[in-house]
Amino acid sequence: MKNCSQEKVLFYLEGMLSEKESEDFFSHLETCGECQKELKRIQRLKEILANERKEIPEPNLSRILSDFRRKRLAKRIKPERRFSWRLVFLPVGALAIILFLFLFRPFPPTADKATEVYLPVDLSYYEIIENIPSEVKEELGTRLLTKSDLEKLEGEILSGFDYFALLEELDKKEKEVLVENLIGGGDL
Amino acid sequence: MSEKEKELIEKAKEGDEKSFEVLMEENYQRVFNLAFRLLRNEDDAYELTSDTFLRAYQSLGKFRGASSFYTYLYRICLNLGINRIKKKKILTVPVKDKEIPGVNGPIEVYQNKRLKEAIENALRHLSPRERVVFLLRHNEDRTIKEITQLLDIKEGTVKATYFHAIKKLQEFLREYL
């Protein structure tokens, strides 16, 4: 009688025992009247309940749909979006890229800014610029002063040679030639 | 999950109600059957069915498609159904009489009616968990493993719950066994 267990009878009937347990219980069942009775009672119960399980009415789709629509509208229900880190990272990433590009944008910047940055603070220089002939100014106006132009001018002016003294001695035409040479990189 | 189903779900997630209603049309019968088996009453089953679809629609953003759409609905229906049983202590209205085939005489009809009432009474005395485990095993032919996954409880708990449900039903239906 050591194998008698109502649980085992049920699990045996339902195929919930392992193969070994099932074999052992089957051997026990052959000789145990109590377990045989229990087995029959559970079988009978399942038969009774099996008749009952067939009684499900046919559902009406229209009723379900109209009920669903009514409740959805009344509660203003919409699908909730799942929280996604992408929604946070995408704009932040885009901003970081824009900021990076702005801070480390390639030089030279616009010519106007270059002029501001690179013009030596020396009135003589402006004098040179003023004396640039209109053709040269036009040339400068179209290409403006590149960084290298300005560096060249600056380099020449600050190289130690006293261009300013020279400028004093030069007439208008000579000054134009000087500027032309400075910009064009020619020899004086 | 079929490509069509995936497409409908994606559209529904964007708020396309028509796509969701197509999904409803494809699943309403099975959801209603489950709801009816849980609650044993037609009006309650209709309400649980529409509530299941409503919750499914609202939470659609969380559905990743790891399981089928029906499994998603199934879990929602089970959870809402259990809550409903707990809250309202329903199952007080007996199911409509429907004759068991082959039972025609007045005595058999009477006995049949009494048996139905006894079954309703027995089922009413199961706890919500016992009722659901019994339903999944007996009506849906789910394996113990499937039940553990659906209800997120341990195998030993499922087996013990099922055993207790059977014992209670045996007790209440003793005179018919």
Observed structural traits:
heterodimer, A: 188 residues, mainly alpha, 11 helices, 69% helix, B: 177 residues, 8 helices
Verbal overview:
The complex is a heterodimer of chains A (188) and B (177). Chain A is mostly helical. Chain A is 69% helix and 0% strand. Chain A contains 11 helices and no strands. In chain A, α1 (6-13) packs across α3 and α6 (111-118) packs parallel to α9. The termini of chain A are far apart. Residues 111-123 of chain A have low confidence and may be disordered. Chain B is an all-alpha fold. Chain B is 72% helix and 0% strand. Chain B contains 8 helices and no strands. Chain B has helices at residues 3-13, 17-39, 42-58, 69-88, 106-124, 128-139, 144-151, 155-172. Chain B is globular and about 55 Å long. The termini of chain B are far apart. The chains are: A mainly alpha (188), B mainly alpha (177). The interface between A and B is large, with 36 and 50 residues.
